[in-house]
């Protein structure tokens, strides 16, 4: 896990990489590389190297990333990104019989949105989303809403659905749970979502002056899906 011995997470990782047929391409925003408590390294440690490939950057052209371009044009490739045009992953998994490739964007919501809309390659695969009401266990980092998930959690749920194996989610989430437990034991605080803070009058930061951001906060308070 590459962490100090005192907070080593290796005992919580699977002894052997999980056997999965689905290959993940993690498109990571450069800002995520510098985060100490990022979840993608834990995800990669749970999977075989050829089933979890990480590409770091903001712009991905066909000339610079020919392998990625080929992947995006493959009819079995999916991209996990919610929206009006996204199909629920459960429906796709029922109809899928061949091994799939799934692209997941790793970054804040604004960073992920920027990557998705400014790279035409990512609008070639079939767009899917997770239909789940589970709350994030990544409690040491603030999420926009109560049901927003970290990259590791998204991958865990998606792989469980695609592989039709419920134990995958439990195995991948185990090191995340241990990470949060260690951090809380060493002084970290539980981070409630912005949605929770706003609804309970606990949001202590200045409200944004930008009208679009202010409108998003109003939607969170009023239970309107963004």
From TrEMBL:
GO terms for biological process: tRNA processing. It comes from the Eukaryota. The keyword Cell wall biogenesis/degradation does not apply. SMART domains: DTW. GO terms for molecular function: tRNA-uridine aminocarboxypropyltransferase activity. Its EC number is 2.5.1.25. It catalyses: a uridine in tRNA + S-adenosyl-L-methionine = a 3-[(3S)-3-amino-3-carboxypropyl]uridine in tRNA + S-methyl-5'-thioadenosine + H(+). Residues 1-188 form the DTW domain. Keywords: S-adenosyl-L-methionine, Transferase, tRNA processing. InterPro entries: DTW, DTWD2/TAPT. PANTHER family: TRNA-URIDINE AMINOCARBOXYPROPYLTRANSFERASE 2 (PTHR21392). Belongs to the TDD superfamily. DTWD2 family. This is tRNA-uridine aminocarboxypropyltransferase. The lineage of its organism: Eukaryota, Metazoa, Chordata, Craniata, Vertebrata. The gene is DTWD2.
